[in-house]
């Protein structure tokens, strides 16, 4: 009897559970299919392709082992230049956009008049088309453009060459003021042209970071602040010792997303520069991958290998960053 | 808005999901049968990169005339307005490239070497088309290992376009025909107008004309060696860059223009080194501005200019090669080319058509004369890559990061790395 009852019990419960499970799988099937077909599959295939010398036009396809990787790492000066450019870009953009995003979030989180307006205004650049913004900034950076106009109105000399055509490194130029000429290439810093794009990038992404920080700030319980102010903590103390530590997981998320975004920067380079110029100083890694693969005929294998190196780099930096910020944070 | 759809039962949802792939398959299968439906006409796909709506209209008109005369062939024209070379490459890789595609002289060696183009020689001789009827430099641009892979549809040369009013204001009466005269004229005009007379850019496709005028070359005669770093090249670079350092020339970005022609149309330049593409641009942006066209001034080694040319080639994987060839024959034949070049304004690649062209556009003789000695804008397999790398070095030179000697040295080593010699 007991077994029968158990059997009946399972029967009466199970068909629904099984059906639920099937339905669940069926419902996520489109998402899984799309993920495997268009994201995970291509990544694996790119990894596989990176061991081949395969021309885009398909007349060359042979297994070459790690030759692509070796050529990129030891025989392609452009790769290292792109690596330097991208690193400077990241070093410049990520901390700045994180700081600005946090400041904007804290400001927009206060009970001030027109709060919604400011939130919308700060977020607006992030939802505008990246290409349109790039083109507008390109006009602003032009000779006699808005920025030239502002600089000359303020009484400064007009910079030569014009912003987007200046390949001189900003750190190198700064050190040059103190008489240190012949700065090594890795210390030259981003070129003025790259710096111009960095500023644009900060402007567009700070809003996104603000929104993420705002969500994080909502999660900080109000009674903590209340207790702190009863104890006589100043606004700055509260920010430093309550807000910053409590939103650390959000900070990790923001810096990670920011880092991935900056290492992959492509559209702004594509729209604003000609072939990653002047003098290759705005050629980022993602842009170089595009150039090598689709413009210079280095082949799909070579481009895939470069993309894998970029992937490894981002992954490595992410793991390092997670370790620095705290393992349990994310 | 008022009636909500009834909730689907779970079973219905499953049915729907099951049906979706079938429906999707039916949709994707659709276009494949399209060719079968058209019974007697063969469809030939043609793709090119029209530089303007005007160019597209003229080509579409020509194709209409062709189809009226050849009812058995229908040509589907697929214009690509941006990133043409990239799109062509991915289309070829995916096997979806058009039957006929236009391609530029610079990437031509890479395409010819890759074997994606159908050889033309045999078909041309069968159709009794003599390649000697074309400008020799243009045929050379689409020849690889003694086989022709495309028929040049037109070409553009670099000329010296100048503003006669600026010349007059500076009392320059003779059109400069040598480097020294150009320099003297530029000095006079710069002084008279108070701003640089010439607007150009740190572009290898302009500098190379000066390189040839000085007697230099990128690759030696038998294509065995890169010979870019030569005294002649240095002379040319010092002259070209010297115009800039001496304040006689400005780059187009210096004056806030998109390209030299843009600066010319805004009266920011008295002299630019551009091609026939400037004419349509001027008609649209500065229709009232008077300008003249002359040949590029001769250097120490004589006259030289560049021929930027585009050919129609047949996709090696095409299934309608004979029909495709018929289309190309019409477009590049005397009749089609006359209509094409006089309709749109690019230079005809057949000297025989030149008379009709000059009758229509007498002032463009400066561009057309260059056709006799123009060198194709081509640097061998890997040329696209080298051209971009050479531009980077020139940008470094113009920004003051490099000396002409260093820039040349870098360009030499870049060329050795990028250009694959035979």
From TrEMBL, chain B:
<dbReference type="Pfam" id="PF01547">
    <property type="entry name" value="SBP_bac_1"/>
</dbReference>
<dbReference type="GO" id="GO:1901982">
    <property type="term" value="F:maltose binding"/>
</dbReference>
<protein>
    <submittedName>
        <fullName>N-Acetyl-D-glucosamine ABC transport system, sugar-binding protein</fullName>
    </submittedName>
</protein>
<comment type="similarity">
    <text>Belongs to the bacterial solute-binding protein 1 family.</text>
</comment>
<feature type="compositionally biased region" description="Polar residues">
    <location>
        <begin position="39"/>
        <end position="52"/>
    </location>
</feature>
<feature type="region of interest" description="Disordered">
    <location>
        <begin position="30"/>
        <end position="52"/>
    </location>
</feature>
<dbReference type="GO" id="GO:0015768">
    <property type="term" value="P:maltose transport"/>
</dbReference>
<keyword id="KW-0732">Signal</keyword>
<dbReference type="GO" id="GO:0055052">
    <property type="term" value="C:ATP-binding cassette (ABC) transporter complex, substrate-binding subunit-containing"/>
</dbReference>
<dbReference type="InterPro" id="IPR006311">
    <property type="entry name" value="TAT_signal"/>
</dbReference>
<dbReference type="InterPro" id="IPR006059">
    <property type="entry name" value="SBP"/>
</dbReference>
<keyword id="KW-0813">Transport</keyword>
<dbReference type="GO" id="GO:0042956">
    <property type="term" value="P:maltodextrin transmembrane transport"/>
</dbReference>
């Amino acid at each position: 009897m007991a077994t029968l009852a158990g059997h009946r019990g399972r029967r009466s419960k199970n068909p629904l559970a099984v059906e639920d499970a099937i339905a669940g799988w069926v419902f996520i099937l489109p998402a899984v299919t799309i993920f495997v077909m268009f994201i995970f599959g291509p990544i694996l295939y790119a990894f596989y392709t990176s061991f081949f010398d395969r021309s885009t036009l398909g007349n060359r396809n042979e297994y070459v082992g790690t030759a692509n990787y070796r050529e990129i790492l030891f025989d392609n000066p452009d790769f290292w230049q792109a690596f330097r450019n991208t690193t400077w870009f990241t070093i410049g953009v990520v901390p700045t956009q994180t700081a600005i995003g946090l400041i904007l979030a804290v400001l927009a989180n206060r009970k001030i008049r027109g709060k919604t307006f400011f939130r919308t205004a700060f977020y607006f650049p992030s939802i505008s088309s990246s290409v349109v913004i790039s083109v507008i900034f390109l006009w602003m950076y032009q000779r006699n453009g808005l920025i030239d106009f502002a600089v000359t109105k303020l009484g400064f000399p007009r910079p030569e060459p014009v912003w987007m055509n200046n390949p001189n490194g900003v750190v190198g130029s700064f050190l040059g003021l103190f008489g240190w000429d012949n700065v090594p290439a890795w210390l030259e810093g981003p070129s003025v042209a790259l710096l111009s794009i960095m500023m644009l990038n900060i402007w567009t992404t700070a809003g996104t970071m603000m929104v993420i920080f705002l969500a994080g700030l909502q999660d900080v319980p109000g009674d903590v602040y209340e207790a702190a102010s009863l104890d006589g903590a100043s606004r700055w103390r509260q920010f430093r010792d309550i807000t910053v530590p409590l939103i650390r997981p959000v900070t990790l998320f923001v810096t990670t997303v920011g880092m991935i975004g900056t290492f992959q920067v492509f559209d702004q380079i594509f729209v604003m520069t000609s072939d990653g110029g002047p003098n290759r100083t705005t050629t980022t890694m993602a842009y170089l991958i595009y150039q090598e693969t689709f413009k210079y005929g280095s082949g799909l294998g070579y481009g895939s290998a470069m993309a894998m190196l970029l992937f490894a780099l981002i992954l490595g930096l992410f793991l390092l960053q997670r370790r620095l910020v705290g393992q349990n944070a994310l | 808005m008022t009636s909500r759809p009834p909730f689907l039962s779970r079973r219905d949802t499953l049915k729907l999901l099951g049906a979706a792939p079938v429906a999707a398959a039916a949709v994707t299968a659709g276009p494949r049968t399209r060719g079968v439906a058209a019974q007697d006409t063969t469809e030939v796909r043609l793709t090119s990169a029209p530089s303007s709506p005007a160019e597209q209209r003229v080509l579409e008109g020509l194709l209409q005339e062709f189809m009226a005369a050849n009812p058995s062939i229908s040509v589907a024209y697929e214009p690509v307005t941006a990133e043409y070379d990239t799109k062509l490459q991915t289309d070829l890789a995916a096997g979806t490239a058009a039957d006929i595609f236009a391609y530029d002289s610079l990437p031509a060696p890479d395409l010819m070497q890759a074997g994606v183009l159908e050889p033309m020689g045999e078909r041309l001789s069968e159709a009794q088309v003599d390649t000697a009827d074309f400008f020799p430099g243009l045929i050379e641009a689409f020849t690889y290992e003694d086989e022709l892979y495309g028929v040049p549809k037109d070409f553009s040369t670099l000329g010296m376009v100048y503003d006669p009013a600026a010349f007059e204001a500076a009392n320059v009466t003779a059109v400069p025909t040598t480097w020294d005269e150009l320099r003297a004229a530029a000095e006079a005009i710069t002084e008279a107008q108070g701003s640089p007379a010439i607007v150009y850019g740190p572009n290898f496709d302009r500098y190379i004309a000066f390189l040839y005028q000085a007697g230099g070359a990128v690759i030696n005669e038998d294509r065995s060696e890169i010979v870019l770093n030569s005294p002649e090249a240095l002379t040319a670079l010092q002259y070209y860059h010297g115009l800039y350092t001496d304040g006689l020339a400005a780059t187009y970005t210096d004056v806030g223009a998109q390209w030299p022609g843009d600066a010319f149309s805004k009266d920011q330049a008295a002299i630019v080194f551009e091609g026939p593409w400037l004419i349509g641009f001027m008609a649209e942006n500065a229709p009232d501005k008077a300008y003249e066209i002359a040949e590029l001034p001769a250097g120490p080694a004589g006259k030289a200019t560049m021929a930027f040319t585009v050919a129609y080639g047949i996709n090696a994987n095409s299934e309608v090669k004979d029909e495709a060839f018929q289309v190309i024959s019409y477009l590049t034949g005397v009749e089609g080319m006359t209509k094409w070049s006089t309709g749109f304004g690019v230079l005809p690649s057949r000297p025989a058509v030149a008379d009709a062209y000059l009758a229509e556009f007498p002032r463009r003789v400066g561009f057309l004369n260059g056709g006799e000695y123009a060198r194709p804008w081509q640097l061998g397999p890997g040329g696209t890559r080298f051209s971009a790398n050479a531009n980077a070095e020139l940008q470094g030179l113009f920004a003051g990061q490099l000396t002409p000697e260093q820039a040349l040295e870098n360009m030499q080593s870049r060329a050795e790395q990028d250009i694959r010699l035979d």
